Fold this protein.
Amino acid sequence: MAALGWLTPRRRSATARSVLAGEASAEAARKSTQETLDSQETLAPLDTSDREPQFPVHGDAMAAAFFDLDNTVMQGAALFHFGRGLYKRKFFETRDLVRFAWQQAWFRLAGVEDPEHMQEARDSALSIVQGHRVSELMSIGEEIYDEYMAERIWPGTRALAQAHLDAGQKVWLVTAAPVEIAQVIARRLGLTGALGTVAESVEGVYTGKLVGEPLHGPAKAEAVRALAAAENLDLSRCAAYSDSHNDIPMLSLVGHPYAINPDAKLRKHAHNLDWRLRDYRTGRKAAKVGIPAAAGVGAVAGGTAAAIALHRRRR
């Protein structure tokens, strides 16, 4: 770990809790990798004939790709969709769903993460799952993926991930969403695994506490750093993809950073550093030379309208 830290110095200071969250997420991800690989779904071949031949490099065992989830791989916030599924199963009351819906509506309209909303969502999620078994939430997560998430995957970003898989590289989700839910999404997309927020559990039951802190900002970079050390990866040969300026620490770790559906701050940062860009939200191709061509544009779902309608019915 010390050697890797020398090779890839931290671009932004991380707290002890960030390091703990990152290391816990990396450990959880590695434990689930073999199971994920064994149960991967076979994906239909994607047309990547016009992607840049030099990247990703085929057969490079020391390279991997790291994808943010919310608004990068999937439209909207995974935690919100998970909350919808739990509400449907009577885990909490309507007023809680309204709060989740408002946070999601704001996220969709603004296109950026709000720390206060994330804190509220985290606290709500922890209180909801406290006392439930991890296996129960994993099983429910499979159902919720089919109900609310599958249709919100950006085809373009999925094609980018597939290009790395086709090159023989591992592909990991990196998200502030609970690691169990992230693992479900990764498995359903045929990816290697996932790094996510680790909730404490004792004998398979959630305690309502976190290990460290949410996997957000610097904590994501720490998780990627820890996983790279465990997997013997060369981060200078790896790629990372995100929509948010909050993920600049993670993007700065790798040799191939990509801004996908970027918020204004990340777009400006990426432009200044000549990072590659692509935007799937409107169909405009903001890619610089070298990014692999990808499949079509994801459709915009009606989450915002549903949230507003639900709020009005409550009034």
